[in-house]
Amino acid sequence: MGFVKDPCGIVCVLVTYLAVIYADYVVTRWIILQTMQNSLWAPFHVVTFNTIVFLLAMAHLKAVLLDPGTVPLPQTRIDFSDLHSERNYNREHEEWTVCTRCETYRPPRAHHCRICKRCIRRMDHHCPWINNCVGERNQKYFLQFLMYVCALALYSIFLIIASWVYPCENCTTTVPETQSRMLHSVLLLLESALFGLFVIAIMVDQMHAILYDETAVEAVQQKGPYRSHRPKMALLAEVCGRGHPVMWMFPCASLNRKLHDVPLLSHDV
């Protein structure tokens, strides 16, 4: 499955990058360089802030471009007239279902996305902010994207408030520059507060879905937890990978290859 050509999703992706670029511009140009000209904190904040921006962009790109877990289409049309016959007993026993739109069998927890027009394994929802479904293979990067947006919003608010509380008395600025800095600071404060609260709500929802093993689609269908007795750390490791938990925070860390290299369609059709 390639890039989803959804107008709403494309606009949301562009808005996301414009908001991040604007935040980087305001923090670097109007806060750090205007209020920390003679401080050693200036290079520290520039490097730290842009590192978070880089990690955010990496996580977002992977969430956008990575296959979320598309169920492959059969090479030939499948005849579903014998769906309940003995030949299909194993599929029914394993909770495989039939998607009449894709005309294929789909594994447990897979659902059809009307925007992507494909069935997605362990589909949580279709997110316009990544112009992609949140599924089995990209949920980790979507969660990282939310985490970095939240960190960037809190960092921006901290730097704005610090520039107001501890202004640089020795920094040479004109009145127009001071007014421009105040205007950009207020706009960034509103942007950070709005996106921060929005992202925190989504991140809490995602963590609940992972820890209780119930996707948003399953919650709407009121199916309940898929594996209610599975340990929380095991559920987190299923999404974030089998490596050390510290590596879960980095988008460069790969998922568990043994788990995700299993063919999505293991039955002969």
UniProtKB/TrEMBL annotation:
Q: Which UniProt keywords apply?
A: Acyltransferase, Membrane, Transferase, Transmembrane, Transmembrane helix
Q: Which residues form the signal peptide?
A: none
List the InterPro entries hit by this protein, alphabetically. Palmitoyltrfase_DHHC, PFA4/ZDH16/20/ERF2-like
Q: Which residue numbers delimit the Palmitoyltransferase DHHC domain?
A: 93-222
Q: Where in the cell is it found?
A: Membrane
Q: Which GO terms describe its cellular component?
A: membrane
Q: Which reaction does it catalyse?
A: L-cysteinyl-[protein] + hexadecanoyl-CoA = S-hexadecanoyl-L-cysteinyl-[protein] + CoA
Q: What class of enzyme is it?
A: transferase
Q: Report TM segments.
A: 7-28, 40-59, 145-166, 186-204
Quote the EC number: 2.3.1.225
PROSITE patterns referenced in this protein's UniProt entry, alphabetically: DHHC
Q: How does it sit in the membrane?
A: Multi-pass membrane protein
* Similarity comment text for this entry: Belongs to the DHHC palmitoyltransferase family.
Q: What does the record say about domains? A: The DHHC domain is required for palmitoyltransferase activity.
The protein's name? Palmitoyltransferase
